[in-house]
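Hi there,

I know you've been waiting on this one. I reran it after we fixed the sequence typo, so this is the corrected version. Both the input and the resulting structure follow.
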Amino acid sequence: MGKNGALSENVSSYLAGVKETLGKLPVQDIEKVIYRLEEARKKGQRVFTCGNGGSATTSIALADILREGSAASEEPFIKARSLCESIGALTHHARKFSYEEVFIRAMRGQIEKGDVLIAISGSGRSQNVLNAVYAAKAAGATAIGFTGFDGGRLKDTADICVIVPSRSMEQIEDVHFLLGHLIATCLGRMPPQDTSLSAMVSSYLAEVSDILEKMPEDLIEKVVYRLEEARWKGQKILTCGNGGSAITSIHFAGDLMKGAMAPGKPIIEARSLCENIAHLTAYANDVSFEDAFLGVMDGQAKKGDVFIAMDEEGNSPNVLNAIDAARFMGATTIAFAGFDGGKLKDMADICVIVPCRSVRQIQAIHLLLCHLITNCLRNIPAEEVKF
């Protein structure tokens, strides 16, 4: 696990790539999005979001961030929802019609003139996302696109398009998620004069770049090696978190199973304790929310497995109870936290603390960590794997 190894270079290169991308973001287009969403808030217009795969979880998180995180004093909440929230509706529409039409069907009877659709597509070429944009514009709604690469067809279709200047799908998703938090932060404290919004956006991006410069790369490497070991030994990886971290934990489990796939390597077995809402709420209702993850873990974790807990301040009782149970079962415990790490830092075998005191920035960087780790797991050289 030497600092001169290929893995160290991969970690440093990934973080450097994100920092470079942040420095090239189109601030003026981001400002346009913020002003349009502020207008929607004041006029009571609804905001819909959509995307596929990792962008689907980003769209769900974005809707939640806009609803809860953009509240300012004496200002109404933004009425936001993701078209990806109902798996029942999506699978029904895909089966009855086609996957290319799922978002059109989900919007039917919902989106109206004056509303806003935020369409998220890394390549800008996903047909169901493009179809949603066409339908939204036909209904008189404003279409906003978040994309990457060259913008694809989305850049020519959306009324406003924020193109992340990167050709890495993982880094594009990182920045899309971060954009949601940036936009919510600006909406939560809109400047009195238009001229200061640009400074607020630039300051936020500079803060994130500074945080990335201070990330504990040696601990990130330890996480990568432990997860690679779990892959080869057939050990299961479980993740959990609350709120935005719950969404990130689901996203990470999916990335570990699919995004970390590599020729000649076993598939990683991973799941989030947050993915079965029926199971989770049943335990929360019948026992307590503080013990909800314990019920979901029952029969899942065993000695040698890996448990990853995500918690911004590191003090959520249900997360602490879960990591304590995982330790008792003999699992390796890993934590992603922020602030000073809270109680979580002393309970985990490895704790990666984001050096920051902003919950939104911590959440955004936790997702970036997930993508960075997935990228390393996919590309880690065989000669560095010794188990």
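Quick highlight: The domain at 21-211 is CATH 3.40.50.10490 (Rossmann fold).

Best,
R. S.
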